[in-house]
What does this fold into?
Amino acid sequence: MSASDPVFASGQSVAHESARHQVQGLAPYVDDLPELRGTLHAAPILSPVAHGRLKGVDTKAARAMPGVVDVVLAADIPGDPLLATFVHDEPIFARDTVLHVGQVIGLVLAETVMQARRAARAVKLDIEALPALLTARAAHAAQSYVLPPVTVKRGEPEQAMKSAKHRLTGSFEVGGQEHFYLEGQIAYAIPQEQQQWLIHSSTQHPGEIQHWVAHALGLDNHRVRVECRRMGGGFGGKETQAGHLAVWAVLAAHKTGRPVKLRLDRDDDFMVTGKRHPFAYDYTVGFDDEGLVTALQLTLLAECGFSADLSGPVADRAVFHSDNAYFLSDVRIDSYRCKTNTQSHTAFRGFGGPQGVIAIETILGDIARQLGRDPLDVRLRNLYGITERNVTHYQMTVEDNILQPLMTQLAQTARYRERRAEIAAWNREHTLLKKGLALTPVKFGISFTATLFNQAGALVHVYNDGSVLVNHGGTEMGQGLHTKVAQIVADELGLPFERVLVSASDTARVPNASATAASSGTDLNGRAAQFAARQVRENLAAFVAGLQGCGAGEVRFAGGKIHAAGSTRDFREVVKAAYANRIQLWSDGFYRTPKIHYDKTTLTGRPFYYFAYGAACCEVAIDTLTGESRVLAVDILHDVGQSINPAIDIGQIEGGFIQGMGWLTTEELVWNADGKLATHAPSTYKIPATGDVPEKMRVDFWPEPNREDNVFGSKAVGEPPFMLAIAVWEAIRDAVAATRTDGRVSMSAPATAERVWRALQD
It folds into this structure.
């Protein structure tokens, strides 16, 4: 092998670094770790009331049950009784008031899991019920908000609306979504010497858990170490809300002096943790004969639950993405962050983006049917331009726009026009089954909207046998982050992928790490690891250059060899020699995303480094007698830049699409009149199964590297594909419209069989 003929790890479909052990059941998760002697198990005491005064907690019966060791309540918190959230509005344990069914009032500790759970149910609660707000619209009417409303305005939408040739007004709602990670929420808190703590947590944000735990105990952060090797799924549900489990477990361990494990069972997980934010929408839109939007007034009501959690940035991103792929000349968006007596809703894949995108896509679909035009033509007419109509309503210039060619190419490869005609003919001939077709785009901004989180650190250690260990601040939840980082480091050092290992995420190694979220895991941590590896490579290059009498720039690393001035040395041999000559073989790397800035008060600026684009063409069929629907075929063209790992990226696209399809079709959250979540188990809450995957599902990559200087020319791929599934929603609405002479469709999401049936009767 020569330096001019390298074999790169990046760009290859390398298997996920844990795949073999996961398939064999040998990859340990938190609940698989050996338990230390004396470990106690905790179970939560939950409020059965949506809103009320907590007048008393009787633990006598619970304490008398077999195996019970202690009970932990708010009075046992040594530090601040409120969680260390940004808004500082959420109690660790309920104190004088309960604010939703399932709010944790305390813990029962016992020798076994089942002993703790049985005893927790025996705790008697004296609660005086109070009126509860259970929907965003009810909260908005009562002016009940977790945060102040936000308005973004451009142009003169009021005047433009008056002069619009056509106007349309509508309202609809989009439900929330349960994360349904395979591994439930769990934390294992272990006391250490000198007031130090070790927390094993299934978390997307070890640094935040470190901060929350230290805050609750009244300690400095350096006394708390948080470790996470892997999660069995996260989807945003373990960004903040894994922190609750860790705090609860450590408070129990602090009181008893013994290790404590807290693992929620699936029903409790449903009742305790937040979901994707449900949204309600009101809109008035003005448009011309071709469907061009000339004015838009849009109200977004985000149902936030009882505390702010991440509702502020989630609602902000919904505002940012209410344009999706389209230029809005005169627009006003009012965003209300509604406080309800339900679980505190939190991050979920897309982080408010899907709730913004579905608004404009629904509006454009309604416009097309109002005018009797093809919805794709209306969408193409409203797209952002290249040099004009290229500034968002929040004043960011769209510099990397590929929407027109991407959508046009997908329409051709998916035979959109031909299939549109075929489906129209089918619908004329069939009364029982109706088909629908839709092609919708995605433009998704990549970066944390909270600018300070757009930073990352990493460590790269080259040992004297030539093996490499990497540690970075990101967490692995099945998305392949560790695999991609290992590929990046391997290529930076010119090594085979197998020579690089990534270790567990650990606050004692890389401090102050941001959450693994916002689709930025590889962008941030991959770049930081690349910089760390580059420093080691430069140290070795300088060493070899000194041996060969050449410039360091002439030294090349490839295929596990180091080439310089006509000589070739094995990487291992060079490392041993460098160690003997006291050359530094490890380094740190740090990266912060460039160019981004925005005003959090006005929501204007450049919150995103770049955009990821994509489009999906979806065909569905509905049963007009039952309302049942089936996705028949999906064609996807998605922009991942220059893929670091094509297999992982395709998996993320397929998985994101199916998860989005579930959000919009079968995953319905239902709270009853008492504020209790009725759909709190797999028997009542339906995520997509293998039988729901479309028989035809084609995924292609847009063939262009990232135009911004991102790691290896790649683009983020975790969240953008989720919104491709809005094509399913629009295709179902298209099928419903085929049953009506006026084309009008009145329906909220998810489009369950019941909702589709009711829309057909309307």
Q: What stands out?
A: The two ends are 70 Å apart (CA to CA).
